[in-house]
Design goal:
The structure is a homotrimer of 461-residue chains. Chain A is mainly alpha-helical and 461 residues long. Chain A is built from 16 helices and 4 strands. At the A-B interface, α2, α3, α4 and α5 of A face α2, α3, α9, α10 and α11 of B.
Chain lengths: 461, 461, 461
Amino acid sequence: MGQTLKRWVRGVALLPAFALTGALAYAQDADLEARLSALEESVSGSASSYVDNSYLFLIGGLIVMFMAAGFMCLEVGLVRSKNAAMQSMKNVLLYAVAGLMFWVVGYNMAYPGSTILGGLLGTTPGIWSGGDLGVESDAGYAPASDWFFQMVFVATAASIVSGTVAERVKLWGFLAFTAVLTAFIYPVVVSWEWGGGYLDSAWAFSDFAGSTLVHSVGGWAALVGAIIIGPRTGKYFGKQVHAMPGSNIPLAGLGTFILWFGWFGFNGASQLAAGTVPDINSVAQIFANTNMGAVGGTLGAMIMTAILYKGKVDATMVFNGALGGLVSITAEPLTPTMGQAVLIGGVGGVLAVLTVPLLDKVKIDDVVGAIPVHLVCGIWGTMIVPATHGMAIVPNEAGDPNFVGQFVGVALTAVFVSAASLVVWLALKFTIGVRATEEEEMMGMDKAEVGLEAYPDFTAG
Amino acid sequence: MGQTLKRWVRGVALLPAFALTGALAYAQDADLEARLSALEESVSGSASSYVDNSYLFLIGGLIVMFMAAGFMCLEVGLVRSKNAAMQSMKNVLLYAVAGLMFWVVGYNMAYPGSTILGGLLGTTPGIWSGGDLGVESDAGYAPASDWFFQMVFVATAASIVSGTVAERVKLWGFLAFTAVLTAFIYPVVVSWEWGGGYLDSAWAFSDFAGSTLVHSVGGWAALVGAIIIGPRTGKYFGKQVHAMPGSNIPLAGLGTFILWFGWFGFNGASQLAAGTVPDINSVAQIFANTNMGAVGGTLGAMIMTAILYKGKVDATMVFNGALGGLVSITAEPLTPTMGQAVLIGGVGGVLAVLTVPLLDKVKIDDVVGAIPVHLVCGIWGTMIVPATHGMAIVPNEAGDPNFVGQFVGVALTAVFVSAASLVVWLALKFTIGVRATEEEEMMGMDKAEVGLEAYPDFTAG
Amino acid sequence: MGQTLKRWVRGVALLPAFALTGALAYAQDADLEARLSALEESVSGSASSYVDNSYLFLIGGLIVMFMAAGFMCLEVGLVRSKNAAMQSMKNVLLYAVAGLMFWVVGYNMAYPGSTILGGLLGTTPGIWSGGDLGVESDAGYAPASDWFFQMVFVATAASIVSGTVAERVKLWGFLAFTAVLTAFIYPVVVSWEWGGGYLDSAWAFSDFAGSTLVHSVGGWAALVGAIIIGPRTGKYFGKQVHAMPGSNIPLAGLGTFILWFGWFGFNGASQLAAGTVPDINSVAQIFANTNMGAVGGTLGAMIMTAILYKGKVDATMVFNGALGGLVSITAEPLTPTMGQAVLIGGVGGVLAVLTVPLLDKVKIDDVVGAIPVHLVCGIWGTMIVPATHGMAIVPNEAGDPNFVGQFVGVALTAVFVSAASLVVWLALKFTIGVRATEEEEMMGMDKAEVGLEAYPDFTAG
């Protein structure tokens, strides 16, 4: 206090000098102002957060894009060698078709400017035309980085269908279905939630990275496809199930690891921002939780098969368990603790194993087990979201995820995707055809539709 | 206005107090100055743009490095099983040789301090020695990040040759050619354009990420190699072409996806900067356009083969179509619209399919179709650049890409690389040899030069 | 000078005006202050360095995670086809077990709050519980990004063991060993150095990215395992060594490239920070040096096998040479020049080739050559560190790496890991068992423990 007083006294005595310092201060201010302006420009020019966010989409999207290779390896490894070239090619083609359709109509359908029917349908479909490269987008990231990231998600949904209907679907029928799925069916469902539509606004539905929006959508489309197309010839005799073992288990294993790898982008970049401390902390936690979900699924499936098969562990079940764990943690990879992530994934892994014989019982032939992994675990992962969010039962004012809302989301997706898929599969069945002839199937799709063999040096003509 | 006047009046009346505030302002200025200095240091220390740019090179380079694995898979999948170990090993060895030579001489040859012969030859070849780690490089990115990024490009050029001359080239001859290609031939061409030499200064030649500089260079070297080394024994009988199908189509499919994946780094990081809004917007748009180029190529090849083969779709053609689309969009992945990118890539895919029989007609044996993909599409992609840049015919004052300049670049590269490759392949032919004996070829390169088999459990001894 | 005087005179004459400017300066200050505050918040909010560092861990960790796929491909390619499904599955399972155990106990054991026994043992083992997502961690990066990065390292150590003991180890015994290795053995060694314990404080031991801490630890555990479990039935008859060639050399080649790819994250992200100019420069140089180490190893092994086998080059030796070069450069990838990196890696590649027959001489059966690559090259790389750091012989005041300190680190790791592994392998041998029966081994682990075949279409039942 005395100090302060002294400073005041000295100040008053030195008034003229202070007047002088006023002038100096003014000069100095000009200098400060110049430096501040330069700094502002530099900081704004370097656009740190904007760049960080865009990098998140680009790198995340890049490794999700690589999941297309993972699906290819997994599916090719699980089909018989006479269909392996077809399956390889089909996975490249579906990725191309998905990209084309999502540009032509899908993206603007999923993220519409406005909606009708209470948020059930977007009204500005059409070609996505990019943004102005010289301008900072209001969204806080480069426009094309978002398009790219969303596009690789739609390809994932299409890849799921590809595995289920393998070894007997006709190429052109499959590609036509893929076109409709990626142009309309998937985008409509996405518009309800990520596009801010009905499920988001009316039910506080919550699906962080797509257990329902991506995986269940693919799963329902695959299920309906498997029913319409029918099982592979010879798969079921009365009550007997004839095993048709995959021809390249190591390739399926590699596919599993590629998908696990890509899932860090799938979930991590779904944080949608990485330029601040809380955002990057969250991305990191999502990485850790995503891994633990897969760990739970892997070990859950391992334990389950060891129990069912008396100590033997089925490799394909372990691979599907890992993927089931990943699908399960996808609806909410941020709020669970690491232990909860293991548990959520673990239940997913067990479900993936237990659902396989149920499908066989009703003679639905799912070649790679995509329905257990993507549909069943997708539903499980979605329904468990409120458990790490305060356990709300119904929508509340805070907009918390709630069990009823989650159920509505799951059910609405089920009804819409099943119905739409049914219409499309049936329309294709009665026009260009979706099912290879028995002769073609026996010969293998490679000879029938691709005109070359996958492994000509190893398999007898 | 009255308000302002009042403030002035009050100000004059309160002169002594104002003098005091001058003193306070001075004190506050010191505080502001300290905070500003701290902030300046922090911003400069965090070096946002510098870090962002370096990350672009490192991450881009990393996934371009992985393209080496993609070429391996593609090529190994398209050779017969008796040469698959050789092809695997050769791809690892060529990547190592390329890295060594580009360090010893290539990098400083491609980016010389000064040039002679009107910019046709750099004058400071020699070992690249890195930079001072503690200092911010004037280039705006970490020096070694650029070396790394450039090095993985030269490895790409070498990988292209490897596929064409597979199944009959001798290991040592091939590696010797790779050494010369990566130390001299490729760097000289790069110096003309990216090194700021003749093509850049005299013709405003434009090749964003290397349709000509990387892919055509590899393509010409491969073409001359295929001619000098000759076709595989038994490939051509008179006018008949004997098909020698690849032994592992799924592996070729995986290779295609790995290359597609890596291409986002190839083109995206060729923006060379990512630390500002326009730069990161551009990187993102390049990602989207690169994908659409590949989509066009894939679907173009699919449609083309379906027409040619009556509804069947050739898997290897689809893979090459995707790659052809990617090569085509590489010369300019930024300025085209998404639709133009599909078109540019689509023409590339069609060209890749149509060129294969032409090569067979003149008995040039290109095992994996690298010449259609990398050379033909490389030329196409380069020639179409001015179409999305204002259609200039000749060099203008604005330095726009122009058709004549593009043609000069393509032609000069053709002449130089063909001539240099011819000299080197011939020199090797008459010294250490480039062609396996017929006996070695029949036995397979694996037994002849590697001393083990690729798939010993599957193929009869 | 006259100018300055004039300004002073003018200043005094205009005192009242100056007093006014004082007032203006004050007002302007308030404006400046507001702008400065906003900027400070923006810079701190965008948290540039914090984000950059976290990105380094996440992206680095991501591609190190992918090394799990690389080890799978390498090992599956080098076992016989009857054990390929087992080897695929085992690699997925070990990655899951490692993640689980490192969360439950390993991470907090490796990075303990305090230590006892002079830094030999951490005292706060237990579950890793993450951090507060809303808060900037004092460490300068997102907490979970570090957990993720460290976790993928422990998985690497476990993968090394998997290859050596392949084709005869029992699944449950192997997984139990993996659990102990990743929960206790590896974390204890890491705590001595990266956790700031005994080796770091007492010996200035230096191991940048884990030549000893990761690779030797895995190597010693593998060596002891190979001795306890014994060689594959039929591998050694008296002095004869029976070759058991790998069944899928291209897959091993792909694995090599995946590992090479992942190693950029392994070494590069071990810089631990990327948010400043010196840090990102260093990360970039580490990329370049890591590549040159692999180049040296590849070419060293190529030359060595060409000499030993009269011109033939062994593909698996080349692959292991690349990996040996990478392990060798891992202990210090920053300070060597590019040329030194080639040399260090080159010696590693030669050592990898020369050690294989020595192991066979003492009948230690290492299926994939993991002991030469990870243990021998790990020791070599660690011992050569002081050579690029001033060649100190003993610890000095500057804390430089020194030959005696490096030897102590290598020796202590050898003693501890060997002893601990011996106890665990023996305990497992006499309880759940670690060795398949001769009958199971003949049948193949796939039929014995997995219940399906890896390649059912290609191998006779």
